[in-house]
Amino acid sequence: MNDLEVQQYLFDLQGYLVIENVLNPQEIAALNDLLDHNEVPESGQQQRFGHAPSGSGFLQWGQPFCDLLDHDQIMPVLRFRLGDCFRLDRIYGMHMSAGMANGKLHSDYGATAPTSNAVPGQYYHSRDTEILNGFTVVAWNLADAGPQYGGFCCIPGSHKSNFKLPQQISDAPDETPCVIIPPAPAGSVILFTEALTHGTAAWRGQHQRRSLLYKYCVSQMAWTAKRVQPPTNAALTPRQQILFNEPADPHRHFPSLFADPE
Known about the structure:
Shape: globular
Mean pLDDT: 88
Number of helices: 6
Number of domains: 1
């Protein structure tokens, strides 16, 4: 499903999008091999690894992680989510082994967010075919995930909800039909708005879950005062370097990531 019109419709409808077969088996193997030689937690330990900010996180572990920053399959989707000027705000990896419990359902913007008095540019809002969506997550799947295994879960359409998540659903997401775990085979990528109610389902797979999360935001916004730093051992393209710029007003003080018009 690579038709941009279809992708835009489904992202707007669901709050997330799964694109399969983005990475080939050789690319998946190379990334997993690099994880094997770095700080991926042992079974039963914490889920997250390779955090940034601050520092470079897992981007410091090899060029293949940097190649995902502006992959051709994600940039058109990020463009119709975030516009021409956006930046890399946070990264981390997710690791799970059989028997690891689910995480709490949450959304960072909208009615369920801790900061529920969201302002335009944060809360997902569509107006005259223009979508205002401050943060979008790109999750690269390096192992099979989905209903039979666990992993990313969400409530489709919840990014547009005007009502807070009921406690009954929050307490028992596994027993609630509206909470789904979309199929996401190895090599696929999941893109979702941070306004979507989402979480982590318990892991039932006998293999390890491995996902890499890249979180992007419009150029004038930032999650914290800390910044992801460019890795010191990788060659970044000019466009990739822009993703590490300080927050700034789009176009006036932050350049377009799409300098050549399509």
